[in-house]
Structures are given as structure tokens and as C-alpha cells.
Amino acid sequence: MTLREIINQDVKNAMKAKETKKRDALRLLTSAFKQIEVDERKELSDEDIIKIIQTQVKRRNDAASQFKDAGRDDLVQIELEEIAVYTPYLPAQLSDDELTSALKAIISKVGASTMKDMGKVMGMASKELAGKADGKRINECVKVLLG
Q1: CATH code of the domain made up of 3-89
Q2: Residue 21 and residue 85 in contact, taking contact as beta carbons nearer than 8 Å
Q3: Taking the complete model, does pTM exceed 0.85, yes or no?
């Protein structure tokens, strides 16, 4: 079963169970899938779907932090609930130790030694760790290791 089929099945299950928040969040997700398919005229793979989900989670996190700054805790809660719905569809994130060891391996593979080599490391790390770690976390860890 593809990731998209799983999500579509979960939409149906949420409708049957009358879980309106989950249903609505997943419908927003499927709408984002359809939008990309129409815009780019391609069939989405599981990797594409994971990227879309990550984008949606990032948007919700950004919105939640802005709502929190504005003192709108009610809206923060809505964003966090949507993130909780999307997270199970993402691959497990690397722990800090796993991320550090993976980046050390990439740094030695690339032969990086200074901050000037950060671009090489980030390029390879982005490809190898896609979906397993957020780009911001990778960036911060690389800075620590090279700095």
C-alpha cells in the first residue's frame, strides 16, 4: 500500500469515526497532493508525498509560533493538532547522536575541514538525510562540527 492510499484510507476511517479535526487535516493534505499533481503534471511518489507533508508541518510550526507571539493560544492549539495528525506519516527522525554520527561520516567522505566546506557537506547531507532530519537541525549540527 502506498503512502497516499494509507492517507486516503485514514480519511475514510476518520469520517466513519466522526473525527472531524483529523478528517479535515487529512483532506487539506490530499488537496495539497492534488495541487502539485495538477501543477507539475506528474504522479506523486512516496518521497514526493513525504516532502509535501514535511512542508505542511513546517508551515504549521511557523504559523503556531506566529500565533503564539500574537497571544492567540486557541489558534496555536489548532496548528499543533494538525501537526500531530501529519507526523505519523513521516519517517522517524534521527536522534541528535545519530545525526551527529551521520554528519561526521559525511564530513569525512567529503573531506571537509573548515566552514568554507559547509556547502559540500550540506549538499550531500540534504540528499542522504532527506526526511530523517530537518534541514535546520542539519545546518546547526554541521556548524558545530566544522566550527
Answers
A1: 1.10.1510.10
A2: yes
A3: no
